[in-house]
Amino acid sequence: MSSLHIQQVRKSYGSTDILKGIDIGIDDGEFLVLVGPSGCGKSTLLSMIAGLDTVTSGDILIGNQRVNDLHPSKRDIAMVFQSYALYPNMSVAENIAFGMEMRKVPKAEREKAIQDVAKLLQMQHLLDRRPSQLSGGQRQRVAMGRALVRHPQIFLFDEPLSNLDAKLRVDMRTEIKKLHQRLKATIVYVTHDQIEAMTLATKIAVMRNGELQQLGSPSEVYNKPANTFVASFIGSPSMNLIPGRLVPHGDGLALEIEHNTTEGLQIPLPPQPDSVTAYVGKEIIAGLRPEAIGNGNLQKHELTRQVQADLVVTEPTGPDTLAILKLGGFEVTARLEADATYPAGHRGLFTVDLTKLVMFDSQTEQRIA
Amino acid sequence: MMTIASSPRQTRAASFADWLEVRLPKLVLAPSVLITLVFVYGFIAWTSILSFTRSKTIPKMEWAGVLQYAKVLGHERWHVAVHNLMIFGVLYVLICMVLGLLIAILLDQRIRHEGTLRAIFLYPMALSFIVTGTAWKWILNPGLGLEKLAHDWGWSSFHFDWIINEQMAIYTIVIAGVWQASGFVMAMFLAGLRGIDQDVIKAASMDGASLPLIYWRIIIPQLKPVFVSALVILTHLAIKSYELVVALTGAGPGYATELPSTFMYAHTFTRNQLGMGAASAVMMLLTVAAIMVPYLYSEVRGPRTSSH
Ligand SMILES: Nc1ncnc2c1ncn2[C@@H]1O[C@H](COP(=O)(O)OP(=O)(O)OP(=O)(O)O)[C@@H](O)[C@H]1O
Ligand SMILES: [Mg+2]
Prior knowledge:
A: 369 residues; alpha+beta; B: MetI-like fold; 75% helix; disordered N terminus
């Protein structure tokens, strides 16, 4: 197990820059998840860590060793591909053993390693089959087995679950998490599923257009998104981003929301740091998670406010009910209690919890608080 | 009233259109089906019948049992023909496959001008066998081609007269045949190579396999279906080959490069032995069928039964 440091890594194909200076560092045993929309360069970054692609500039360090010029097989890493990339002409056992065979590991030792991995992944009964005789989930297991048997410094996963159906995906997600906890392995995992990112990661790197938007723990990325892109990308349903204005209110500040309505809405804010008070009278973007807007399910305390809102539509999901509310003229998503029944067009008081309110500069879209 | 009056006509018109729609493909195909039936299967049947008769210059419906087969099998020239076919067939198939695979692997290294090179290698297949045979006849002719060229350039000890050498002439047919077909085999292998998942190769590379090992252990085993196709196509080309020999050596010198096909032609059309010609033709047909039928059968059935 080893740490991984990516320093100012750039990648260009001809004149197009795919990665524009990425800096990521993780410690031994961390689970790094790279997320971002399609085409943002996640796979490119992963294959550069693997050594399947060269960096245009910058350094990649595994442990303390700079590996830029090391052949993939010399980097002591193992990769699980999205397509699984099993050797179709070999049995499962041969697939798992191929790397050891190449490294001239004695046959007896190989046999034992195969058995150990097969037991770990509960696939002893599959060892003699060909990949074409396996289901998607079983292939996925074999691909993991092939990586595990190497005991590498770092595991790389490129969207390993994206070819599985929804149920299996959730099961395998849990298994990968268990495996990580058991092996204390360093893992870099690519996905564009933000739930996978939240559930698996110890660190999430959110990328967009070849640039790192934020690197942090799941709760940091969720609660303190660096900018509006991260705020809307992480979380489902995504964070409500409400354009508003900071206005003086008594001794402090209030958030004024007004959109195509004569009567604006003013929400008094708790005391704010200087970075925010500097924005008095200016436009900002307020970020509120759906679970921070509710009705009876939110306990009232000093940071909650009662606001008048119009209910547009409700969507019961089971454990709770999602509702679209009109708040000062803006449509926002709220998470209400499960059996909330309101007639469409209902107008009433809802609760807003300001504990986790975040605010962004309306021009740069960076977080100010 | 209007609707009642018009509806039967409409139905009739519609039913004619329906009738046409159902029958049109059959009508269009009918002439070619008929032609195939008569000129392929009809003549196969006719030839088979003739092979059991005493026909000589003209067909004669006199039952002869397996007499003609016995005569063919006992004929010295037939033995030479079969022996030559073995040499030619084995060398032609093997060399074409090895060369085709090698060129395909080299072209698969994402080199520049790949398209041009591919076309160059593939081009011989577009030539007729007669053109190939004639061209190689000139190239291999000691007084005209390679040997003369070497002499003109001052390499006077150079000696290459296989084409007029009874022992070696059959190998000149191998050379010309390989020249013509290996590009085609290359194209088949290249298509196979292009179909291989690049991630698998990356995975093998991360597992520490060198490029030659990746080809040997991972890629070439996946080309098995291409090997089978190439083997079948080349084998039946080898058994059928006729024009090449006619143009290149005319089955000579003497009858040193006789093949079953030239044997059949000679007996049927120039030696007034219609029955023997027919018997040899039937034996060739059975050999080709023994190779092609299982292959075609597996090709048609394959996708459904194989687990892939
Ligand atoms: N060989 C190449 N030549 C030119 N551009 C490339 C090449 N490989 C990738 N790209 C480009 O690099 C960008 C990033 O690709 P990459 O595969 O890393 O995206 P990704 O984040 O993994 O997306 P996805 O979630 O769809 O897998 C894409 O815009 C892609 O078009
Ligand atoms: Mg990708």
